[in-house]
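Title: Prediction job returns without error message
Component: structure pipeline
Severity: low
Priority: P3
Assignee: unassigned

Description:
Job completed but the reporter wants confirmation the result is attached to the right record. Sequence as submitted:
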Amino acid sequence: MKKTVRKTQTKSTDETQVLSEELRASFVRFIEYHPATRLSLNLRKMILEFLQYDGAIKASYLNDLLFDLEGLFELLDTIQAAEVVNYEKQ
């Protein structure tokens, strides 16, 4: 199995991140079949409905869930922005 190596600059140190070809292919396939805009919108609707109708605001795990979903939404927004830029370049 081949590995894709990408160097990223962080605030404190240089790090090398390794992403296997299989994992990279899985991300690409996921993005192709699950449009970021649609997925992001549906997840946002789902969490809001969950909070409104199930009274889950007092659930102990909610802070972690909201933090994780916020990160996921940021990733989906970045994917969508990249898709728009790539489309405009074509």
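Comment from assignee: result matches the submitted record. Residues 1-10 have pLDDT under 50 and may be disordered.
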